[in-house]
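Example record

One chain of 407 residues, shown exactly as stored in the release files.
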Amino acid sequence: MNTLDKEQILARFRSYVSLDTASDDKAKTSPSTVKQLELAKLLYKELTGLGLQDVELTEYGYVLATMPANTDEERPVIGLVAHMDTSSEASGADVKMQVHPAYVGGDLLLSEGIKLSPRDFPELKNYIGQEIITSDGTTLLGADDKAGICAIVSACEYLLAHPELKHGKVRLAFTPDEEVGRGTEHFPLTEFGADFAYTVDGGAIGELNYETFNACNAKITFYGVSVHPGSAKNKMRNAVTMAAKWQMLLPAGERPEYTEMYEGFYHSLRISGGTDKVELEMILRDHDKQKLEVRKALLLQMADYMNSEYGAGSVVCQLEDAYCNMKEYIMPVYEIIERAENAMRAAGVEPQLLPVRGGTDGARLSEMGLPCPNIFTGGHNFHGRFEYLPVPSLLKCVEVLIKLLQK
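Predicted structure tokens for this chain:
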């Protein structure tokens, strides 16, 4: 294939990350933040300008488009999906994107006093000799998932410019609120009309995912009794102490910082309150559905135990399932994984079939009836200030999508 226009792809990516699109899990609107619509409007204009058809910005902030087939051969309708929002775990405002020249090893200076170091992130050593994209270390970069959007749009632009490369009908969807678990809440599945799809929302080059966690969200409320500390003996019931005890009761080695691959975890996400009342938000994750049920049962047992100690109603544990492992929906149509593997190999990338230690829009879409595995973008360290994206990995993602759509 002809050489991709690297500078044009990087300029496109820069235009996306310049917009703050963080979602908000506390908001009740769809999309959860108005600022996501700025990127949606930009994409609407860009896709229309490229000559894509059926370009639409829905009332819920989804951007849809069609690249028509350029062959009379009967081919499946393939969907490509990426999300517009970024995590709120690190600021996405005023991102100062930097393209570092060929990495020579050692620490990579992001800005004064801020370094990206292989001592902290050993995978960085895999990219010696390559250009690497970062922020200045005060914000996230936004490769999750603006790299995916960039790769999808760039692949479509390339195919439109090279009509000799034959492909079937392609449907695009750029979704809001994936980071807060609501990316498919208003997804127009019937209108989308794809036979199967791929989210372009993965990590390192070569990653191909069709297994995700089964996910449950938990909210634990501790009800204390606040009394002036000077006269609190035998009267105060400190909700902060109760929350601390809860944390100590959790299996010590089953937290995200101690687990990998197929190991599930309990994660205390955020906490607020004081002596009288504390609210703790947790997430439970496991690739095995039955093991997740065991984790849920443990929390309920812990609540019963603490209520027996502090009094009925002192601890309330609410559980809500979020998404399931998409493996059971992908295995019956495993040929779509083989299609992606073949596309990667055709682009000179060796596929790495790895479980996702998280979720994607694809997990829920697969459950809804649209099989939707996940393809790499090339990024690392998502959701944090030390996020980075090797330029060759992004370009290979574009190339893989071009090969995928021709199959």
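Notes: Residues 219-323 form a domain with the Alpha-Beta Plaits fold (CATH 3.30.70.360).
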